[in-house]
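Hi everyone,

Forwarding the result from last night's run.
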Amino acid sequence: MHVQTQRLETKIGTIQNKRSTDASNELEELLSTATQVFGDYVRRSTDPQTQVVEPSSVEELLAKLDLSFSSQGVGQQGIWQDINTICNTATNTWSEKFLYKLYSSPTPIGVISESLLGLLNNNVHVFRSSPIGAILEATISNKLAEMCNFPKDTASGLTFPGGSYSNMHALMVARNQRFPEIKTQGLWGLAKSGTRPVVFTSAHAHYSIEKSTIAAGIGSENVVSVPTDDSGCMDADALRALVIREIQLGCTPFFVNATAGTTVLSAFDPLDQIAAVCHEFDMWLHLDGSWGGPLALFGNKSLFGYQIPAGKVNSFTVNPHKLLGIPMQCSFLLVRDGLKVMRDALSLGATYLYHSATDVHQDESSEVGSSQYMQQLGGSWDLGDATMGCGRRPDAIKMWISWRYYGTQYFCDRVDRARQLAIDFAHLVVARGSTKAGNWKLFIEPQSISVCFWFIPHSQTLRHRRQQAADDKGDSLQKKEEFAEWWGDVTKSLCNYINSKGAALVDYATVDRFRAVPESPYEFTRYQVPYFFRIPFNNPDVTLDTQNAVLDAIEEASCIIYD
């Protein structure tokens, strides 16, 4: 046994020595190859002739990849083969025709910043494990909070792995602040008093709000969906009426989620009116700006004049990885009243990890703290104690490096270009009007940076008119709104055909519309709009040629499928 232990210790020592002497050389060799491989990948990916994705089935992808787990490893030659295979089969977000989801390629400096996080491998839960990460996170959070009209002396924020988690933490903090017994007694504490918490959010809001209520124990049945106007903005009068209804039913409204840039229409909710309702009924107002937040922070006010009213919003989510080109993921939750609110709601004071101040020992993070940050951070640089988790990537470093490298004006120009691209594309759709293949129809004027529209093939219009004449019936609501249900089927078919070829990636979506029921302030008729194309413009490399190529691809797909 002693001999075996000696051999094991010798082997471990050999590995440690090898690691300490060879790590830098190995890294330099790998990075040298990576420079060539990654540079070639971006060069190919940005070529307009390169596919956005190579059409492949799951079976074909499985055949291209070696998914075995080698006991000895494949070494550099084998791993670069694997990496090349991954690059060749991955979705190409560097392409100007990647118009599929609410993000695009990172910037070159963004790739460097993401690599830096891997190099450092820091954890920004306690100050000592990532001092510079904590300082940069506080600095950027405070700056963003200032830009969204939060008070300088209190406001701060934290990063989270995506907007859904930022939104969830806002809800958790609001819940525990309003119902402090939940923190120790759980939902049983509310049950004893017969309290039923209720959340309000726009019918067009991101699903993360409803999912957050599931995680928070509130439940999706206690989420009230507030109707929108025809532009997709929350109806503040309807919100007030629904709050009154819930109070009359014995419920306790406590949280309203407004949206700056809805997922589909990119609509911005009217904050002043919503804030007035929240103030009247003592509700936490959260603004989900995951998608459109950068427009409010960096956008040209003459081009897009959305303002966040000072002092009226409790919390705000913004995702730089969407509009600003920061690598996935980078999301900030900004809190008007600072991290003390979050600590009071979520902290457990785990002394084995977070060394809080005592009569004998001073908090180690406060030894290096600066008084200008202490109030905003709730008295400690140990940021993880203000969250529901523990391990945290220092994602703020990515934002800091891009901001320092490009400067504020780059972000301003980038979001302004996104807005202008949406306006220009909408004009192209309208200008095409009726073509030989069919009719172009804009759903609504772009609210900010997404364009929603249909292409309606003449052949399908004629077929459905004949069918309707034969049936002598139709949906009166759709007739009134000039929408036909079959438009949605056409949209999905065209979109799926284009995406199956891989030269471009586009997407479709739908939303609901509402009509008030006469003489009933709480009731609304709700109907689904037929599926339409939804094109977000968050890639600054998109050009007029790109936009025309996408429209041409839709018409060509229509001719192939329907003629």
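Residues 187 and 425 are 49 Å apart (CA to CA).

Cheers,
N.
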